[in-house]
Amino acid sequence: MIRVMLPTHLRTLAQADRIVELEVEGAVTQRAVLDALEAAYPTLRGTIRDTVTRQRRPLVRFFAGKQDLSHEPPDAPLPDPVATGDEPFLVIGAMAGG
Amino acid sequence: MSGVRVLVGTRKGAFVLTSDETRERWDVCGPHFAGWEMYHLKGSPVDPNRLYASQSSGWFGQTIQRSDDGGRTWNPVGNEFNYDGVPGTHQWYDGTQHPWEFARVWHLEPSLTDPDTVYAGVEDAALFRSTDAGQSWQELSGLREVKGNLWQPGAGGMCLHTIVLDPNDPDRIVVAISAAGAFRTDDGGQTWLPINRGLKSPYELPDPDADVGHCVHNVAMHPSRPDVLFMQKHWDVMRSDNAGECWHEVSGNLPSDFGFPIAVHAHEPETVYVVPIKSDSEHFPPEGKLRVYRSRTGGHEWEALTAGLPQQDCYVNVLRDAMAVDSLDSCGIYVGTTGGQVYASADSGDTWTPIVRDLPSVLSVEEQTLQ
């Protein structure tokens, strides 16, 4: 079971808890986790990744294990603690204030 | 008992303001979608409980919300706005061609006859339609074939912000796009014509009479006379008596003919409202006085409406979608400001009172007259 932590606005939009639990088939990658997230919560389609390009939206970040994984390839394996469910995969609204 | 529902979109959420027909006491409900930019909310003319809202965020993109109970509860619907075919390119700031990229929905226009049909004006400029109550969206891509490669973004982005539906002819739609102009279809959106003859942009375009490229800010129509259109252009207030075939200037004695919104009185087709702004670089009222101007002669002759509006040290703006009229017997008019005030007049603009003073910056104001 993979755990994903959502930012406040997406939690509200999806009417979901702060941390959602997802079953991911096969290799645990960014793409697989986000596909599972969007399948479980269709209202999140387009909010994390562009609906056409499937690229991460510019002001969304992915953190896990105190690392910024935002620029990792979408099919790269996520760290083991995420794959085992010991640590959540964090979806973050980037700092964009002034 | 009749009443009014005013739908207010702001930079940080949406608010629903309701009153009975006296429009003296208001109930303020919100913020809905707190923290999100609410560019526009609008109700269906045939089902007042059916509302559509454009919710967006620099972080999380575009969502469309729908209410089926007059705004008490909302549910997200479809947010996939995919351009038809190969999107192509438009002109960019540096003169190069730039791919069409969806940014947000500026304006939602529900059908005059079917609550499940709604149009969306988007940035980068295009018109979409949903016939399943917002679940899915299809582009009316013939619009971008009208020299779309020459359109270029203005300061606010290349947005399709105005959609005017003809009550007598369901196949006729007028749209307006910043820094591209006004366009009309007479066949339900398959083919389009630029309707910019008579517009002059001597300081914005190398050819001041060009058929596309004019920065149209807003277009208004009275439903009893759909061939008469009023336009607030970047500079100039314009009028057409033939559905946009040609335009003539009616700015008359306005203190500035720059502005954003324009509206027509609900019962008097020759009574028109604008909110003059000092200039393209100074987006605030001349002399620090917020004045709505009213013409009862279809333009040319304008009177300042000031009673109840701030007449000193006022430097707010009123954006293009932030003025609306109701259709009660004594026509009401509503104006929202970038300072977070929504002013209401229940007497055609003669006197004004603030409904709310301290909302986030107001992006849009729409009304529903409830019978």
Concise synopsis of the structure shown:
The complex is a heterodimer of chains A (98) and B (371). Chain A is α+β, with helices and mostly antiparallel strands and 98 residues long. Helices cover 22% and strands 20% of the residues of chain A.
Task: Compile the SSE list and pairings.
The complex is a heterodimer of chains A (98) and B (371).
Chain A lengths: L1 E4 L2 H7 L4 E4 L7 H11 L19 E5 L2 E2 L11 H4 L5 E5 L5
Chain B lengths: L2 E8 L2 E8 L6 E6 L4 E7 L7 E7 L3 E7 L7 E2 L12 E3 L5 E3 L4 E7 L7 E6 L2 E5 L7 E2 L20 E6 L7 E5 L3 E5 L7 E2 L21 E6 L7 E5 L3 E4 L7 E2 L8 E7 L7 E6 L14 E4 L7 E3 L17 E3 L7 E4 L5 E4 L7 E4 L5 E9 L1
Antiparallel strand pairs in B: 1-2, 1-30, 2-3, 4-5, 5-6, 6-7, 8-9, 10-11, 11-12, 12-13, 14-15, 15-16, 16-17, 18-19, 19-20, 20-21, 22-23, 23-24, 24-25, 26-27, 27-28, 28-29
Please provide a written account of the structure.
- The complex is a heterodimer of chains A (98) and B (371).
- By secondary structure, chain A is of the alpha+beta class.
- In chain A, 22% of the residues lie in helices and 20% in strands.
- Chain A has one domain: Ubiquitin-like (UB roll), CATH 3.10.20.
- Chain A contains 3 helices and 5 strands, in the order βαβαββαβ.
- In chain A, a hairpin with a 2-residue loop joins strand 3 and strand 4.
- Chain A starts with a strand and ends in a 5-residue tail after the last strand.
- With 371 residues, chain B is mostly beta strands.
- Chain B has a single domain (86-354), classed as Methylamine Dehydrogenase, Chain H (7 Propeller), CATH 2.130.10.
- In chain B, 0% of the residues lie in helices and 40% in strands.
- In chain B, the strands form 8 sheets. In chain B, strands 3-2-1-30 form a 4-stranded antiparallel sheet, with no helix packed on it. Chain B has a 4-stranded antiparallel sheet with strand order 4-5-6-7, with no helix packed on it.
- Chain B is globular, with a radius of gyration of 19 Å.
- Chain B starts with a strand and ends with a strand.
- The model of chain B has no long low-confidence stretch (mean pLDDT 96).
- At the A-B interface, helix 1 of A face strand 6 of B.
